[in-house]
Amino acid sequence: MQKLWLSAALCLLASGCGANNSPAQVSTPGAPTSAKLQMLDAGASVMQSRPPIEAISAYLDGFHFYNGDQNGQMEAHHYVTVLNDDVMQAVIYDGNTRDARLMGVEYIISERLYKTLPPEEKKLWHSHQYEVKSGSLIAPGLPQVADKALMSKIVNTYGKTWHTWHTDRDKTLPLGIPALMMGFTADGQLDNRLLEDRDKRFDVDSKAIRQERADIIAHPVAKGANAWQQGEVIQLQRVKGGGEHAHGETHFAPAEQLGGAAP
């Protein structure tokens, strides 16, 4: 596993390795960066260390949709840090260029840890079996051997994803409140136009990748995951006071009570 992530890290450091082919999807308002700020930025990049950023060791590209609104789909560029053998974390952007917009975060845990979660918590997580086996989740730039080893690790994990910038509709600034996102679980759910556009930019063939991963062993989805398939649609609701942590209360609400899945 250590050698695998070292390979991924080296790939990220290599120029042109799965990068700079997916520009940001939004354009933020604001004055051009001043010479003073440019100088401060350049100086900080040389003088300051960034351990959490430097710990990022893999790049994954896949797709999400709003919990409760399968028509709200978008590509998500994940930059992943391995915390231990059971837990990973990812920062998610709307592109893979220097000016990509930070879109959200995803926490990824093993099947073993997922099964220890309480029932209500499990509803917030989605499976990765289909994403891996279908070829819709890719690790741009990795050689096939490393890709297969990485995907064999990810296939039976579970993710909890929150998007803070809804770049499919908010084209200037991050508006509203965070949205819980889900992953696709079957053929016919993902807009094929999104997949074809992604494959073209990265010069990959999702159908060929699916065949290459046919022998990756995927366990049955653990009970409680992908709760949206059973009608359990959860999104955040604006509340007064201390939010879900006030007096131990939770303030999640079904999307149908909020007028839609996306905030």
TrEMBL record:
PROSITE patterns: PROKAR_LIPOPROTEIN. The keyword Signal applies. Transmembrane segments: none annotated. Residues 241-250 have a biased composition (Basic and acidic residues). Residues 240-263 are annotated as: Disordered. Keywords: Signal. InterPro entries: OBAP-like. It holds the Pfam family DUF1264. Residues 1-19 form the signal peptide. This is OBAP family protein.
